[in-house]
From TrEMBL:
Subcellular localization: Cell membrane
Cofactor note: Mn(2+), Zn(2+), Cd(2+) and Co(2+) support activity to lesser extents.
Transmembrane region(s): 92-113
Name of the protein described by the UniProt record: Diacylglycerol kinase family protein
Amino acids binding ATP: 24, 72, 81-83, 90-91
Amino-acid positions noted as binding a divalent metal cation in the UniProt annotation, renumbered to this chain: 24, 72
Primary site of residence: membrane
């Protein structure tokens, strides 16, 4: 792949991130939550491994939410009418976001709660 093609690929991906943040209230919520997690981790002086765990689960939530949003948009485009199959697809995609969020909350709890209790 040429360097120019690679550059434009990254530009489209950055554009996608911007679209998600501008058009989706969930995107802005994730951005605020991410800033809060970073601030809390810095304040509580997390170790490198704790930072890594927080980064992984935060990234997982972003990944799940962005793919869920893309799936919702595809379904609204190809099948705007009510259909049981669309319900199944959208519910399962939303379930992936929930699974990632529960994991992130659990890891956040394991990392932050003992540090907060020790203050
Ligand atoms: N075309 C459809 N046919 C059947 N059920 C649908 C359809 N569109 C939406 N639903 C149901 O409504 C739910 C919400 O779908 P919608 O596309 O409104 O997502 P949303 O409210 O924008 O979700 P999110 O909060 O994740 O952005 C789906 O999980 C599904 O159960």
């Amino acid at each position: 792949m040429s360097a120019q093609k690679r550059f434009f690929g990254i530009r489209h991906a950055v554009n996608g991130l911007g679209l998600f943040l501008r058009s989706e209230s969930n995107g802005r919520m994730h951005a605020i939550a991410t800033v809060l997690v970073i601030a809390l981790a810095a304040w509580l002086r997390c170790t490198a491994i704790e930072w890594a765990l927080l980064a992984i689960v935060t990234g997982m939530v972003w990944l799940a939410e962005m793919l869920n949003t893309a799936i919702e948009k595809i379904m609204d485009y190809v099948q705007p009418e009510i259909h049981p199959q669309v319900k199944w697809i959208k519910d399962v995609a939303a379930g992936a976001v929930l699974a990632a969020t529960i994991t992130a909350i659990a890891v956040g709890g394991f990392v932050f709660v003992p540090k907060l209790l020790a203050l």
